[in-house]
């Protein structure tokens, strides 16, 4: 593509043009009208970019790249058993203590435990019983030593 001068429509760049003074009646080389140069934004030969009437909702990059998944209800592996009051086995495992002037009831929820949580709880209880036995044995040994 060859350069063309916007002042005289010659086959040279505008910076190399011989016309250095202001042109009294400029002629557009794009549309041929008199009164403006080819670089004028209002020239009819130049394409007019129209803006949309409404603001278009755009997606962010994160929204466009993520896959939209439908939320599917997962089946419950351990169905909840309906119970109005805690069964007697839970009342045995319940613990009531006072914190300040408020009584707090802690209930062990054994009926809703999954197998892993149940195993962890049983292991913890086994360890606590072992530790209690050990401390009781050491206490008995100390008493026996004192009596001798």
UniProtKB/TrEMBL annotation:
This is CCHC-type domain-containing protein. It comes from Araneus ventricosus (Orbweaver spider). The lineage of its organism: Eukaryota, Metazoa, Ecdysozoa, Arthropoda, Chelicerata.
